[in-house]
Specification:
eight-stranded mixed beta sheet, binds fe (iii) ion, EC 3.5.2.7, 2 domains, Urease, subunit C, domain 1, globular, alpha/beta, metal-binding, hydrolase, eight-stranded parallel beta sheet, binds N-(iminomethyl)-L-glutamic acid, 16 strands, TIM Barrel
Length: 412
């Protein structure tokens, strides 16, 4: 199979193989070739350049992209896309005045989703989840991280991770799996928190490692959830099984979780709606990617991650959806990119870098995904005719995507 895309108005995010993430000032630049071609063989990007240099070769298929932008697919590095049921009643309760924390304290929130998931069969959970997977592919996502964490029992955490594995086997997009047993304390352990941590470390982790069900380990490090000591113990144990740390941190309170993540060489620290100078200092010089989740801030009406402070300190930043039933029932990366520009004052260049190459870095896959690079996997978006790439975040809520290509194959 070979595919040639010609007359591309702008081919954006064109980078050398050695660029694995972009930080600070570098985020302001989005390397672009105007009036370009792109040549794909099987699942790989093989060549690209200015249309003048496009050779007349015989290919299986040609696409004329006159007036259109071609770019890498979105890399969504933080989702809980495998879940059962919905929480629209809590949404209405919040409109009427209850807070997210008040709802959680009443047994709603994560525990509500866990109850539903525990009573859902593995097949049903798979069927519910793939509807969302099909949707996010249409919205331009080509690489996705998926977390467990709505099981909270040995059996149900395994059920979630097996569903993620099954999605990986049946859908072409790139998937990374994260074990988030430490998402909340189940009701039966509220008086024996150490008992649940022991269950995670001694029962869940060995089984997950044995079935090779996860790449990463995550903890919700937050007041009322997992403390710094709990997080430290769980990440340490996960690493012993070869899982790479990531953490949910600073969503509501900043109390040293970022530095703890960096100490564990976490691949990413996610949320960061509350951020202080100590957190910024901890991230400087580290390999840890800060990740912002603007549609969570939008949906819960909580502060937005201070992207300007992060980027202006010379740090990198990635953007992801946090797709989940409680705080972000949306997997739309186009909305994330728009919201980052509108509410976090990121420029279109910064937001697109954050949602592609830096998102890929936050999944440990930026050597193969996240940019237009010779040898990388051909996961691409072809837009409808648009005036410029600025139009993508500008026209928020509109669908500007015409075609999605995954592994060199036209999907939609
Ligand atoms: O990333 N913050 C923790 N976990 C999820 C939300 C969980 C839920 O409300 O179901 C998040 O926002
Ligand atoms: Fe999350």
């Amino acid at each position: 199979m070979s595919l040639l895309i010609i007359n591309i108005k702008s081919l954006i995010q064109v980078r050398n193989q050695n660029v694995l993430k972009v930080s600070g000032e570098e985020m302001k630049h989005l390397p672009t070739i105007e009036n370009a071609f792109l040549y794909i063989e099987n699942d790989k990007i093989v060549d690209y350049g200015s249309m003048e240099n496009c050779k007349n070769i015989k290919v299986s298929k040609t696409i004329d992209a006159l007036g259109k932008i071609v770019m890498p697919t979105w890399c969504d590095s933080h989702t809980h896309i495998v879940y059962a049921g919905n929480r629209e009643q809590e949404f209405v309760d919040r409109i009427k005045g209850l807070s997210y924390t008040e709802i959680a304290n009443r047994g709603g929130g994560i525990l509500n989703s866990a109850k539903t998931l525990q009573n859902t069969s593995e097949d049903d959970l798979y069927q519910q989840s793939i509807q969302r997977i099909k949707n996010v592919i249409k919205l331009g996502t080509g690489a996705l991280e998926i977390k467990s964490g709505y099981g909270l029992t040995v059996e149900s955490e395994l059920k979630m991770l097996r569903v993620i594995k099954r999605i990986k086997e049946h859908y072409p997009l790139k998937i990374k799996a994260t074990f988030l047993g430490a998402h909340a304390f189940p009701e039966s352990y509220l008086k024996d928190k150490q008992g649940y941590i022991d269950l995670i470390i001694n029962k869940m982790l060995p089984k997950i490692a044995n079935e090779n069900l996860a790449d990463f380990i995550d903890v919700f490090c937050e007041k009322g959830y997992f403390s710094l000591d709990d997080t430290d113990a769980i990440l340490t144990a996960g690493k012993q099984y070869g899982l790479i740390p990531k953490i949910h941190v600073n969503q509501f309170n900043a109390f040293g979780g970022v530095a703890l993540g960096v100490k564990h060489n976490a691949l990413s620290v996610d949320h960061l709606e509350e951020l202080n100078q100590d957190d910024i200092d901890a991230l400087k010089g580290s390999d840890t990617m800060p990740v912002a989740l603007p549609s969570c801030s939008y949906f819960l009406s909580i502060p937005y991650t201070p992207a300007r402070q992060i980027i202006d300190s010379g740090l990198p930043l990635a953007l992801a959806t946090d797709y989940n039933p409680g705080s972000t029932p949306s997997g739309n990366m186009n909305f994330v990119v728009s919201t980052a520009c509108i509410k976090m004052k990121m420029t279109p260049e910064e937001a697109i870098n954050a949602a592609t190459i830096n998102g890929a870095y936050a999944m440990g896959i930026s050597n193969e995904y996240g940019s237009i690079t010779k040898g990388k996997i051909a996961n691409l978006i072809i837009t409808k005719p648009v005036p410029s790439y600025n139009y993508l975040p500008y026209s928020f809520g509109e669908n500007n995507i015409e075609t999605v290509i995954i592994n060199g194959e036209v999907i939609t």
